[in-house]
């Protein structure tokens, strides 16, 4: 497994990436299992700059069906993700990233107005006003170990996700859930014979801050296949899925009074399961620079906004 995988698989996730959106949109910044870059040499690293756009239309209920009362709700996100991946030696690498996200929610039904909470929270900002709101989101700090097991390049990893600031998490336009998370897992890859084809898979378990004393931990699965057309050009197909603990959306509408503390925390309590598939391509411009583009489609989802599209463009430079 190449050393820069920690940069792409674990965090840039950008394919479905750093949107880590609350209010029914699940965080997918576990990455999409892409293994499409060469490893940096020992004692060297890679700086990356990613640009992502993501839009949703409507929302999905606990069974993955259309939530009719949110059919007209639309969200649009624009993200810039900064990352550094460094290979210390043949075994160890580390990664750090921080995204800046701008998001808006249009045609909101007013369910996230903090002045309507019980008790009201007039000091909290109302962000579902149709305008873009932006902020730095969550730091990700990761470490990976590189080894070979049974012919597979294997990379166990640990990743800490920590909110960079006290941003708003209550609203369809929220840029994240403002929860500390710690993920443990592995990724494994292998070349198919002497061909230019490779395949990879991975699993992670994520420990998440408990919300109102409820377990909201998550499991992440990744699968990908890559073909190298030349030393300069490669293409990857990938799939990712998340399954988690937590509550279904319809639980909150049975609460009395409406707008209580559980409703204020509902975006953090939701299970928000999903599945994505996608395509990406990488062009190695020279020995230092590389450019990649990705497109992802949501194929399943529950308790979250219905994702229409996700596009990403990433520029990398080795140092």
Summarize it:
The protein has 319 residues and is mainly beta.
Structural class by sheet pairing and helices: mainly beta
How much is the radius of gyration in Å? 19 Å
What composes the largest sheet?
12 strands, antiparallel, barrel
Taken from the alpha-carbon principal axes, the silhouette is: elongated
- The succession of helices and strands, N to C, reads HEEEEEEEEEEEHHEEE
Number of strands: 14
Task: Describe what you observe in this structure.
With 319 residues, this protein is mainly β. Helix content is 5%, strand content 50%. It has 3 helices and 14 strands. It has a 12-stranded antiparallel β-barrel. A hairpin with a 4-residue loop joins β10 and β11. The longest helix is centred in the first third of the chain and has 8 residues. The radius of gyration is 19 Å and the shape is elongated. The chain starts with a helix and ends with a strand. The N terminus is likely disordered.
Secondary structure: elements and pairs:
Blueprint: H1 5-12, E1 44-60, E2 74-87, E3 92-106, E4 133-136, E5 138-145, E6 147-149, E7 152-163, E8 181-191, E9 197-208, E10 218-228, E11 233-244, H2 261-264, H3 266-269, E12 273-284, E13 289-302, E14 304-318
Antiparallel strand pairs: 1-2, 1-14, 2-3, 3-4, 3-5, 5-7, 6-7, 7-8, 8-9, 9-10, 10-11, 11-12, 12-13, 13-14
């Amino acid at each position: 497994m190449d050393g820069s995988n920690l940069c792409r698989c674990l965090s840039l996730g950008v394919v479905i990436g750093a949107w880590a959106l609350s209010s029914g949109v699940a965080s997918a910044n576990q990455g999409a299992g892409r293994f499409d870059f060469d490893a940096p040499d020992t004692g060297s690293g890679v700086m990356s700059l990613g640009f992502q756009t993501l839009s949703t239309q409507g929302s999905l209920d606990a069974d993955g069906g259309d939530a009719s009362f949110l059919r007209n709700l639309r969200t649009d996100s624009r993200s810039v993700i900064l990352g550094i991946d460094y290979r210390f030696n043949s075994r160890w690498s580390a990664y750090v990233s921080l995204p800046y996200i701008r998001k808006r929610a249009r045609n909101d039904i007013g369910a996230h107005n903090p002045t309507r909470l019980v008790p009201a929270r007039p000091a909290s900002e109302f962000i579902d006003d149709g305008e873009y709101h932006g902020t730095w989101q969550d730091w990700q700090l990761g470490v990976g170990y590189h080894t070979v097991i049974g012919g597979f390049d294997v990379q166990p990893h640990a990743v800490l996700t920590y909110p960079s600031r006290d941003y708003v998490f209550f609203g369809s336009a929220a840029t994240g859930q403002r929860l500390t998370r710690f993920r443990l897992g592995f990724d494994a890859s292998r070349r198919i014979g002497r061909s230019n084809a490779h395949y990879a898979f991975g699993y992670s378990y994520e420990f998440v801050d408990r919300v109102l004393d409820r377990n909201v931990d998550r499991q992440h699965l990744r699968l990908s296949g890559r073909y190298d057309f030349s030393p300069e050009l490669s293409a990857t197909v990938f799939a990712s899925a998340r399954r988690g603990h937590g509550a279904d959306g319809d639980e909150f509408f049975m609460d009395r009074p409406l707008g209580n503390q559980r409703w204020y925390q509902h975006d953090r309590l939701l299970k928000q399961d999903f599945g994505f598939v996608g395509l990406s391509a990488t062009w190695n411009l020279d020995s230092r620079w590389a450019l990649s583009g990705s497109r992802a489609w949501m194929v399943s989802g529950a308790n979250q906004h219905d994702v229409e599209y996700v596009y990403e463009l990433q520029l990398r430079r080795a140092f």
